[in-house]
Design brief:
Blueprint: H1 3-12, H2 30-43, H3 45-65, H4 68-79, E1 85-88, E2 104-108, E3 111-121, E4 129-135, E5 145-151, E6 156-160, E7 176-182, E8 184-186, H5 187-196
Parallel strand pairs: 1-4
Antiparallel strand pairs: 2-3, 3-7, 3-8, 4-5, 6-7
Helix pairs in contact: 2-3, 3-4
Length: 199
């Protein structure tokens, strides 16, 4: 992965194209964003993937669902290119079907214990912030799915080496595998997710 390119994109504002200006982004419309992704892809598809994941999968979720404190802590540095974000949804047995995932998030006192396995994590090997999905209520299907965002260093987890996949060309950022041993997360993240979930 050409990290010098990532740093330069951050300086130019490419890593926060869809983020509101109040959080350090460019607040571009969807068409402009797609044009930017297409142009970067012509030179390096792996770099474009990092850019797309940051904007579409990481920053978007934090801006729409996060608390103000979380936006200041995660979104602002992400938009400015000071942090790299990863997206951890896919599982070995469930693929990208969030309602079928096996990762569980069980409330223990005022924190959650997270147990599960994720694979094909884009940016997983070098990210600072992880967007992690799991089930807090399996009986509710997709409505029982919750997303947490956490600093990578807060995850009591084991990262495996990059696995070969259709995306694992020499520069591709996808293909990382994560076994979560234990992850403790503040309950306000779960409360926020429940408040924004449709009844």
């Amino acid at each position: 992965m050409p990290f010098e390119n990532i740093k330069k994109m951050g300086e130019l504002g490419f890593l926060g194209l869809t983020v509101s200006e109040e959080y350090g982004g460019a607040a571009l419309d969807t068409v402009s964003y797609c044009v930017a992704i297409e142009e970067i892809s012509k030179a390096c598809a792996a770099t474009a993937i990092v850019m797309a994941v940051r904007n579409s999968l990481v920053c978007y979720g934090i801006e729409k669902l996060g608390t103000e404190e979380q936006k200041q802590r995660f979104l602002v540095p992400l938009a400015k290119g000071k942090l790299i974000g990863a997206f951890a949804l896919t599982e070995p047995g469930a693929g990208c079907d969030g309602a079928a995932q096996e990762t569980t998030m069980v409330l223990d006192g005022d924190e959650y214990i997270v147990d599960g396995t994720k694979n094909f994590i884009t940016n997983g090997g070098f990210a600072d912030v992880i967007v992690l999905f799991g089930m807090t209520d399996k009986s509710q299907g997709y409505r029982g799915t919750t997303r947490f965002w956490s600093r990578r260093t807060r995850l009591g987890s084991r990262w495996a080496r990059k696995r070969k996949s259709w995306a694992s060309a020499p520069r591709a950022p996808a293909g990382w595998y994560l076994r979560i041993v234990e992850c403790l997360s503040p309950t306000d993240w779960e409360r926020r997710a429940r408040a924004l979930r449709s009844p």
